[in-house]
Amino acid sequence: MTMSGGDGGRDSESATDNELASLRNRVKELEAENAKLIAQVSSCQCQQMGVEHHDVPVLDSGNLVRRSRRGRKRADKSIPSHLISKRYVALKIMYFGKRFYGFSAEAQMEPSIESEIFKALERTRLLVGDKKDSNYSRCGRTDKGVSSTGQVIALFLRSRLKISSGDSEGHTYEKINGRPEYDYVRVLNRALPDDIRVLGWSPVPLDFHARFSCSAREYKYFFWRQNLNLSAMDIAGKKFIGEHDFRNFCKMDVANVHCYTRRVTFFEVSPCQNSHEGDQLCTFTMRGSAFLWHQVRAMVAVLFMIGQGVESVDVIDTLLDTKKTPNKPQYLLASEIPLVLRTCEFENVNFICTSGALESLRSHFKKESLTYQLESVIFQEALRNCLPMGNDEISCDSEEKKKKAAVHVPLLSRPTEPSYEERSAKLKPRQQETCPV
Q: What is the 3-state secondary structure (H, E, C) of 341-372?
Protein backbone atom coordinates (compact mmCIF):
# COMPACT_ATOMS: atom_id res chain seq x y z
CA MET A 1 0.00 0.00 0.00
CA THR A 2 1.31 3.45 -0.88
CA MET A 3 1.49 5.85 2.06
CA SER A 4 0.65 9.55 1.67
CA GLY A 5 3.14 12.23 2.58
CA GLY A 6 3.95 12.96 6.25
CA ASP A 7 2.48 16.50 6.36
CA GLY A 8 -0.77 15.38 4.68
CA GLY A 9 -1.15 12.48 7.13
CA ARG A 10 -0.65 14.70 10.16
CA ASP A 11 -3.19 17.22 8.82
CA SER A 12 -5.72 14.42 8.26
CA GLU A 13 -5.24 13.03 11.78
CA SER A 14 -5.59 16.50 13.27
CA ALA A 15 -8.83 17.12 11.38
CA THR A 16 -10.21 13.76 12.52
CA ASP A 17 -9.33 14.48 16.16
CA ASN A 18 -11.03 17.88 15.96
CA GLU A 19 -14.14 16.33 14.44
CA LEU A 20 -14.31 13.61 17.16
CA ALA A 21 -13.87 16.20 19.89
CA SER A 22 -16.66 18.29 18.37
CA LEU A 23 -18.96 15.24 18.21
CA ARG A 24 -18.23 14.29 21.83
CA ASN A 25 -19.08 17.82 22.98
CA ARG A 26 -22.31 17.73 20.98
CA VAL A 27 -23.29 14.37 22.47
CA LYS A 28 -22.70 15.76 25.99
CA GLU A 29 -24.84 18.79 25.18
CA LEU A 30 -27.66 16.58 23.87
CA GLU A 31 -27.46 14.28 26.90
CA ALA A 32 -27.66 17.25 29.24
CA GLU A 33 -30.61 18.67 27.33
CA ASN A 34 -32.36 15.28 27.31
CA ALA A 35 -31.87 14.85 31.07
CA LYS A 36 -33.31 18.30 31.64
CA LEU A 37 -36.39 17.51 29.52
CA ILE A 38 -36.93 14.18 31.29
CA ALA A 39 -36.81 15.87 34.68
CA GLN A 40 -39.36 18.44 33.53
CA VAL A 41 -41.73 15.87 32.03
CA SER A 42 -41.52 13.41 34.94
CA SER A 43 -42.48 16.15 37.37
CA CYS A 44 -45.65 16.81 35.40
CA GLN A 45 -48.85 15.00 36.27
CA CYS A 46 -49.47 12.10 33.92
CA GLN A 47 -53.12 13.08 33.55
CA GLN A 48 -52.20 16.57 32.45
CA MET A 49 -49.81 15.15 29.87
CA GLY A 50 -52.58 13.02 28.44
CA VAL A 51 -55.04 15.92 28.20
CA GLU A 52 -52.54 18.06 26.28
CA HIS A 53 -53.06 15.78 23.27
CA HIS A 54 -56.41 16.02 21.53
CA ASP A 55 -58.50 12.91 20.82
CA VAL A 56 -56.93 10.90 23.68
CA PRO A 57 -59.03 8.64 25.97
CA VAL A 58 -58.69 9.91 29.54
CA LEU A 59 -60.05 9.05 32.98
CA ASP A 60 -62.15 11.84 34.40
CA SER A 61 -63.53 11.29 37.92
CA GLY A 62 -64.04 7.62 37.22
CA ASN A 63 -65.81 8.19 33.89
CA LEU A 64 -64.48 6.58 30.74
CA VAL A 65 -64.14 8.99 27.83
CA ARG A 66 -63.51 7.36 24.46
CA ARG A 67 -61.75 9.18 21.64
CA SER A 68 -60.51 8.38 18.15
CA ARG A 69 -58.07 5.52 17.54
CA ARG A 70 -55.76 7.87 15.64
CA GLY A 71 -55.47 10.12 18.67
CA ARG A 72 -54.93 7.14 20.93
CA LYS A 73 -52.01 5.87 18.86
CA ARG A 74 -50.52 9.36 18.64
CA ALA A 75 -50.72 9.73 22.42
CA ASP A 76 -49.17 6.29 23.01
CA LYS A 77 -46.18 7.22 20.85
CA SER A 78 -45.76 10.70 22.31
CA ILE A 79 -45.56 9.69 25.99
CA PRO A 80 -42.98 7.00 26.85
CA SER A 81 -44.35 4.64 29.51
CA HIS A 82 -41.40 5.26 31.85
CA LEU A 83 -42.45 8.93 32.08
CA ILE A 84 -46.02 8.15 33.20
CA SER A 85 -46.68 8.23 36.95
CA LYS A 86 -47.57 4.75 38.22
CA ARG A 87 -47.68 2.74 41.44
CA TYR A 88 -47.59 -0.91 42.45
CA VAL A 89 -50.96 -2.09 43.78
CA ALA A 90 -52.81 -5.27 44.72
CA LEU A 91 -56.39 -5.80 43.51
CA LYS A 92 -58.91 -8.06 45.25
CA ILE A 93 -61.07 -9.79 42.63
CA MET A 94 -64.45 -11.57 42.71
CA TYR A 95 -65.67 -13.68 39.82
CA PHE A 96 -68.38 -16.24 39.07
CA GLY A 97 -66.43 -18.87 37.17
CA LYS A 98 -69.11 -20.93 35.41
CA ARG A 99 -68.66 -19.46 31.91
CA PHE A 100 -64.88 -19.08 32.04
CA TYR A 101 -62.11 -21.49 31.04
CA GLY A 102 -60.28 -20.83 34.30
CA PHE A 103 -58.52 -17.77 35.65
CA SER A 104 -55.31 -17.87 33.61
CA ALA A 105 -55.16 -16.60 30.04
CA GLU A 106 -52.08 -18.76 29.31
CA ALA A 107 -54.13 -21.81 28.32
CA GLN A 108 -55.24 -19.98 25.14
CA MET A 109 -58.87 -20.81 25.94
CA GLU A 110 -61.31 -17.93 25.92
CA PRO A 111 -62.96 -16.45 27.77
CA SER A 112 -60.71 -16.42 30.86
CA ILE A 113 -61.01 -14.16 33.89
CA GLU A 114 -57.48 -12.85 33.41
CA SER A 115 -58.06 -11.81 29.80
CA GLU A 116 -61.25 -9.94 30.78
CA ILE A 117 -59.39 -8.09 33.54
CA PHE A 118 -56.64 -6.96 31.17
CA LYS A 119 -59.20 -5.87 28.59
CA ALA A 120 -60.72 -3.62 31.27
CA LEU A 121 -57.28 -2.33 32.30
CA GLU A 122 -56.49 -1.39 28.70
CA ARG A 123 -59.95 0.09 28.10
CA THR A 124 -59.64 2.34 31.15
CA ARG A 125 -55.99 3.12 30.30
CA LEU A 126 -54.92 2.20 33.83
CA LEU A 127 -52.39 -0.26 32.38
CA VAL A 128 -49.06 1.43 31.62
CA GLY A 129 -47.30 -0.31 28.75
CA ASP A 130 -48.29 -3.97 28.39
CA LYS A 131 -48.67 -6.98 30.67
CA LYS A 132 -44.95 -7.77 30.56
CA ASP A 133 -44.11 -4.26 31.76
CA SER A 134 -46.57 -4.35 34.66
CA ASN A 135 -44.67 -6.77 36.96
CA TYR A 136 -47.89 -8.80 37.10
CA SER A 137 -48.49 -11.67 39.55
CA ARG A 138 -51.56 -13.62 40.67
CA CYS A 139 -52.25 -15.49 43.91
CA GLY A 140 -54.20 -18.47 42.61
CA ARG A 141 -54.78 -20.11 39.24
CA THR A 142 -58.31 -21.47 39.59
CA ASP A 143 -59.56 -24.03 37.07
CA LYS A 144 -62.44 -23.94 34.62
CA GLY A 145 -65.74 -23.25 36.37
CA VAL A 146 -64.24 -22.38 39.78
CA SER A 147 -65.32 -19.08 41.37
CA SER A 148 -63.66 -16.70 43.82
CA THR A 149 -64.62 -13.98 46.27
CA GLY A 150 -61.03 -13.10 47.20
CA GLN A 151 -58.56 -13.68 44.36
CA VAL A 152 -55.63 -11.23 44.45
CA ILE A 153 -53.42 -9.90 41.66
CA ALA A 154 -50.63 -7.31 41.75
CA LEU A 155 -49.31 -5.00 39.04
CA PHE A 156 -48.29 -1.43 38.21
CA LEU A 157 -51.22 0.89 37.46
CA ARG A 158 -51.39 4.48 36.28
CA SER A 159 -51.47 6.85 39.24
CA ARG A 160 -52.27 10.46 40.08
CA LEU A 161 -49.56 10.39 42.73
CA LYS A 162 -45.79 10.35 42.51
CA ILE A 163 -43.17 8.61 44.65
CA SER A 164 -41.99 10.82 47.48
CA SER A 165 -38.54 12.28 46.98
CA GLY A 166 -35.84 10.06 48.50
CA ASP A 167 -38.07 6.95 48.53
CA SER A 168 -36.49 4.47 46.10
CA GLU A 169 -38.56 1.53 47.40
CA GLY A 170 -41.94 3.00 46.45
CA HIS A 171 -43.41 2.88 49.97
CA THR A 172 -44.72 6.46 50.16
CA TYR A 173 -46.44 8.66 47.60
CA GLU A 174 -47.46 12.29 47.55
CA LYS A 175 -50.30 14.09 45.80
CA ILE A 176 -49.79 16.22 42.72
CA ASN A 177 -51.77 19.47 42.86
CA GLY A 178 -53.79 18.05 45.77
CA ARG A 179 -55.72 15.58 43.60
CA PRO A 180 -56.66 12.19 45.18
CA GLU A 181 -55.72 8.82 43.77
CA TYR A 182 -57.89 7.17 41.12
CA ASP A 183 -60.85 5.19 42.43
CA TYR A 184 -59.54 1.96 40.92
CA VAL A 185 -62.52 -0.10 42.11
CA ARG A 186 -65.18 2.13 40.56
CA VAL A 187 -63.27 2.75 37.32
CA LEU A 188 -62.52 -0.92 36.63
CA ASN A 189 -65.96 -2.22 37.60
CA ARG A 190 -67.53 0.03 34.97
CA ALA A 191 -65.45 -1.74 32.32
CA LEU A 192 -65.72 -5.35 33.58
CA PRO A 193 -68.45 -7.89 32.71
CA ASP A 194 -71.18 -8.49 35.29
CA ASP A 195 -69.63 -11.74 36.59
CA ILE A 196 -66.27 -10.14 37.48
CA ARG A 197 -65.81 -7.38 40.05
CA VAL A 198 -62.92 -5.64 41.82
CA LEU A 199 -63.67 -5.57 45.57
CA GLY A 200 -60.77 -3.40 46.73
CA TRP A 201 -57.22 -2.27 46.11
CA SER A 202 -54.16 -1.73 48.26
CA PRO A 203 -50.75 -0.12 47.73
CA VAL A 204 -48.02 -2.74 48.14
CA PRO A 205 -44.20 -2.59 48.24
CA LEU A 206 -42.21 -3.35 45.11
CA ASP A 207 -41.05 -6.74 46.46
CA PHE A 208 -44.67 -7.90 46.90
CA HIS A 209 -45.70 -11.00 44.93
CA ALA A 210 -49.35 -12.07 44.87
CA ARG A 211 -48.43 -15.76 44.93
CA PHE A 212 -45.33 -15.99 47.10
CA SER A 213 -46.32 -13.26 49.58
CA CYS A 214 -49.59 -15.05 50.38
CA SER A 215 -49.61 -16.54 53.88
CA ALA A 216 -52.83 -18.56 53.57
CA ARG A 217 -55.62 -19.46 51.16
CA GLU A 218 -59.13 -20.48 52.14
CA TYR A 219 -61.53 -22.52 49.98
CA LYS A 220 -65.22 -23.28 50.41
CA TYR A 221 -67.08 -26.12 48.72
CA PHE A 222 -70.90 -26.00 48.82
CA PHE A 223 -73.13 -29.09 48.64
CA TRP A 224 -76.60 -30.32 49.54
CA ARG A 225 -76.71 -32.54 52.61
CA GLN A 226 -79.20 -35.12 51.27
CA ASN A 227 -78.36 -38.39 53.08
CA LEU A 228 -74.68 -37.67 53.66
CA ASN A 229 -73.17 -38.43 57.08
CA LEU A 230 -71.80 -35.01 58.09
CA SER A 231 -70.21 -36.35 61.28
CA ALA A 232 -68.19 -38.99 59.43
CA MET A 233 -67.07 -36.44 56.82
CA ASP A 234 -66.00 -34.00 59.52
CA ILE A 235 -63.95 -36.66 61.32
CA ALA A 236 -62.35 -37.71 58.04
CA GLY A 237 -61.69 -34.11 56.98
CA LYS A 238 -59.89 -33.34 60.24
CA LYS A 239 -57.30 -35.95 59.23
CA PHE A 240 -56.16 -33.59 56.45
CA ILE A 241 -55.01 -31.03 59.04
CA GLY A 242 -51.23 -30.86 59.33
CA GLU A 243 -48.39 -31.38 56.91
CA HIS A 244 -48.91 -34.32 54.54
CA ASP A 245 -47.94 -35.64 51.13
CA PHE A 246 -51.10 -35.07 49.06
CA ARG A 247 -50.00 -36.80 45.83
CA ASN A 248 -53.01 -39.17 46.13
CA PHE A 249 -55.33 -36.15 46.39
CA CYS A 250 -54.34 -34.13 43.32
CA LYS A 251 -53.49 -34.22 39.64
CA MET A 252 -49.73 -34.68 39.45
CA ASP A 253 -47.68 -32.32 37.29
CA VAL A 254 -44.28 -34.01 37.49
CA ALA A 255 -42.75 -31.70 34.88
CA ASN A 256 -43.12 -28.68 37.19
CA VAL A 257 -43.87 -30.00 40.69
CA HIS A 258 -41.52 -32.39 42.48
CA CYS A 259 -42.74 -32.01 46.05
CA TYR A 260 -46.35 -32.76 47.00
CA THR A 261 -46.16 -31.93 50.68
CA ARG A 262 -48.64 -29.24 51.71
CA ARG A 263 -49.93 -27.95 55.03
CA VAL A 264 -53.64 -27.74 55.83
CA THR A 265 -54.32 -25.60 58.90
CA PHE A 266 -58.13 -25.73 59.17
CA PHE A 267 -61.02 -27.97 58.11
CA GLU A 268 -64.71 -27.78 58.97
CA VAL A 269 -68.05 -29.14 57.76
CA SER A 270 -70.93 -26.82 58.58
CA PRO A 271 -74.55 -26.18 57.55
CA CYS A 272 -75.47 -22.93 55.78
CA GLN A 273 -78.59 -20.82 56.27
CA ASN A 274 -79.98 -21.81 52.87
CA SER A 275 -82.29 -24.79 52.39
CA HIS A 276 -84.56 -26.06 49.63
CA GLU A 277 -87.55 -28.35 50.06
CA GLY A 278 -86.20 -29.62 53.36
CA ASP A 279 -82.66 -30.21 52.07
CA GLN A 280 -79.94 -28.28 53.91
CA LEU A 281 -77.12 -26.51 52.07
CA CYS A 282 -73.73 -27.27 53.67
CA THR A 283 -70.12 -26.33 53.09
CA PHE A 284 -66.61 -27.66 53.53
CA THR A 285 -64.19 -24.93 54.62
CA MET A 286 -60.46 -25.60 54.35
CA ARG A 287 -57.47 -23.35 54.79
CA GLY A 288 -53.80 -23.91 54.06
CA SER A 289 -50.59 -22.25 52.98
CA ALA A 290 -50.91 -23.60 49.42
CA PHE A 291 -52.83 -26.23 47.47
CA LEU A 292 -51.95 -28.56 44.61
CA TRP A 293 -53.66 -28.83 41.23
CA HIS A 294 -57.21 -30.23 41.80
CA GLN A 295 -56.35 -30.95 45.45
CA VAL A 296 -59.55 -29.57 46.98
CA ARG A 297 -61.84 -31.32 44.47
CA ALA A 298 -60.02 -34.63 45.05
CA MET A 299 -60.34 -34.28 48.82
CA VAL A 300 -64.05 -33.51 48.49
CA ALA A 301 -64.62 -36.49 46.17
CA VAL A 302 -63.24 -38.93 48.77
CA LEU A 303 -65.16 -37.20 51.57
CA PHE A 304 -68.40 -37.68 49.62
CA MET A 305 -67.69 -41.43 49.40
CA ILE A 306 -67.24 -41.47 53.18
CA GLY A 307 -70.42 -39.46 53.67
CA GLN A 308 -72.32 -41.95 51.50
CA GLY A 309 -71.05 -44.81 53.66
CA VAL A 310 -69.23 -46.61 50.83
CA GLU A 311 -65.75 -45.82 52.21
CA SER A 312 -64.46 -45.79 55.78
CA VAL A 313 -62.96 -42.81 57.57
CA ASP A 314 -59.64 -44.68 57.75
CA VAL A 315 -59.19 -44.53 53.97
CA ILE A 316 -57.87 -40.98 54.43
CA ASP A 317 -54.96 -42.27 56.55
CA THR A 318 -54.17 -44.95 53.98
CA LEU A 319 -54.13 -42.49 51.05
CA LEU A 320 -51.98 -40.00 52.97
CA ASP A 321 -49.43 -42.75 53.63
CA THR A 322 -47.60 -42.61 50.29
CA LYS A 323 -45.14 -45.32 51.31
CA LYS A 324 -48.03 -47.71 51.83
CA THR A 325 -50.03 -46.31 48.88
CA PRO A 326 -47.55 -44.90 46.34
CA ASN A 327 -50.06 -45.08 43.46
CA LYS A 328 -53.23 -42.98 43.42
CA PRO A 329 -56.44 -45.01 42.92
CA GLN A 330 -58.53 -43.88 39.96
CA TYR A 331 -61.59 -41.83 40.98
CA LEU A 332 -63.57 -38.91 39.60
CA LEU A 333 -63.09 -35.40 40.96
CA ALA A 334 -65.94 -33.53 42.61
CA SER A 335 -67.69 -30.95 40.41
CA GLU A 336 -65.88 -27.64 39.97
CA ILE A 337 -68.99 -25.40 40.06
CA PRO A 338 -69.55 -25.34 43.88
CA LEU A 339 -65.85 -24.59 44.60
CA VAL A 340 -64.94 -21.05 45.68
CA LEU A 341 -61.55 -19.54 46.47
CA ARG A 342 -62.90 -17.51 49.35
CA THR A 343 -59.90 -15.48 50.44
CA CYS A 344 -56.15 -15.01 50.08
CA GLU A 345 -54.42 -13.68 53.18
CA PHE A 346 -51.42 -11.33 53.33
CA GLU A 347 -49.56 -9.53 56.08
CA ASN A 348 -49.86 -5.73 56.17
CA VAL A 349 -52.16 -5.54 53.13
CA ASN A 350 -55.38 -3.63 53.79
CA PHE A 351 -57.73 -3.30 50.85
CA ILE A 352 -59.42 0.03 50.16
CA CYS A 353 -62.89 0.66 48.73
CA THR A 354 -64.59 4.06 48.71
CA SER A 355 -68.13 4.35 50.07
CA GLY A 356 -69.47 5.12 46.60
CA ALA A 357 -67.76 2.10 45.03
CA LEU A 358 -68.92 -0.11 47.94
CA GLU A 359 -72.52 0.98 47.50
CA SER A 360 -72.31 0.19 43.78
CA LEU A 361 -70.89 -3.26 44.57
CA ARG A 362 -73.69 -4.08 47.01
CA SER A 363 -76.32 -2.95 44.54
CA HIS A 364 -74.73 -5.01 41.76
CA PHE A 365 -74.43 -8.21 43.83
CA LYS A 366 -78.04 -7.88 45.01
CA LYS A 367 -79.22 -7.49 41.41
CA GLU A 368 -77.18 -10.47 40.22
CA SER A 369 -78.41 -12.62 43.12
CA LEU A 370 -82.05 -11.85 42.29
CA THR A 371 -81.39 -12.65 38.62
CA TYR A 372 -79.97 -16.08 39.46
CA GLN A 373 -82.89 -16.77 41.80
CA LEU A 374 -85.29 -16.03 38.94
CA GLU A 375 -83.41 -18.52 36.77
CA SER A 376 -83.73 -21.08 39.57
CA VAL A 377 -87.49 -20.50 39.69
CA ILE A 378 -87.73 -21.37 35.98
CA PHE A 379 -86.07 -24.74 36.57
CA GLN A 380 -88.34 -25.38 39.56
CA GLU A 381 -91.35 -24.61 37.36
CA ALA A 382 -90.07 -27.05 34.74
CA LEU A 383 -89.67 -29.67 37.46
CA ARG A 384 -93.29 -29.22 38.53
CA ASN A 385 -94.45 -29.54 34.94
CA CYS A 386 -92.71 -32.87 34.36
CA LEU A 387 -95.07 -35.75 33.62
CA PRO A 388 -95.79 -37.87 36.71
CA MET A 389 -93.99 -41.20 36.90
CA GLY A 390 -96.04 -44.37 36.80
CA ASN A 391 -95.72 -47.09 39.45
CA ASP A 392 -93.64 -49.28 37.14
CA GLU A 393 -91.24 -46.40 36.41
CA ILE A 394 -90.89 -45.61 40.12
CA SER A 395 -90.04 -49.26 40.85
CA CYS A 396 -87.46 -49.37 38.03
CA ASP A 397 -85.91 -46.12 39.21
CA SER A 398 -85.46 -47.36 42.78
CA GLU A 399 -83.93 -50.62 41.55
CA GLU A 400 -81.51 -48.70 39.32
CA LYS A 401 -80.33 -46.65 42.31
CA LYS A 402 -79.71 -49.83 44.30
CA LYS A 403 -77.65 -51.27 41.43
CA LYS A 404 -75.50 -48.12 41.25
CA ALA A 405 -74.84 -48.27 45.00
CA ALA A 406 -73.95 -51.95 44.77
CA VAL A 407 -71.36 -51.50 42.01
CA HIS A 408 -69.14 -49.20 44.06
CA VAL A 409 -65.58 -50.50 43.91
CA PRO A 410 -63.55 -49.71 47.06
CA LEU A 411 -60.83 -47.13 46.42
CA LEU A 412 -58.02 -49.42 47.49
CA SER A 413 -59.23 -52.14 45.09
CA ARG A 414 -59.35 -49.91 42.02
CA PRO A 415 -56.83 -49.60 39.19
CA THR A 416 -54.18 -47.04 40.00
CA GLU A 417 -52.45 -44.21 38.18
CA PRO A 418 -48.67 -44.22 37.58
CA SER A 419 -46.69 -43.17 40.65
CA TYR A 420 -44.57 -40.05 40.79
CA GLU A 421 -41.42 -42.11 40.25
CA GLU A 422 -42.93 -43.87 37.23
CA ARG A 423 -44.01 -40.59 35.70
CA SER A 424 -40.63 -38.97 36.38
CA ALA A 425 -38.78 -41.82 34.72
CA LYS A 426 -40.46 -40.87 31.45
CA LEU A 427 -39.17 -37.30 31.67
CA LYS A 428 -35.66 -35.93 31.57
CA PRO A 429 -34.26 -35.24 35.03
CA ARG A 430 -34.96 -31.74 36.15
CA GLN A 431 -33.86 -29.69 39.07
CA GLN A 432 -35.88 -30.48 42.15
CA GLU A 433 -38.03 -27.59 43.36
CA THR A 434 -37.82 -26.43 46.96
CA CYS A 435 -40.50 -28.11 49.04
CA PRO A 436 -42.95 -25.47 50.36
CA VAL A 437 -44.02 -25.70 53.99
A: EEEEECCCCCCECCHHHHHHHHHHHHHHHHHH
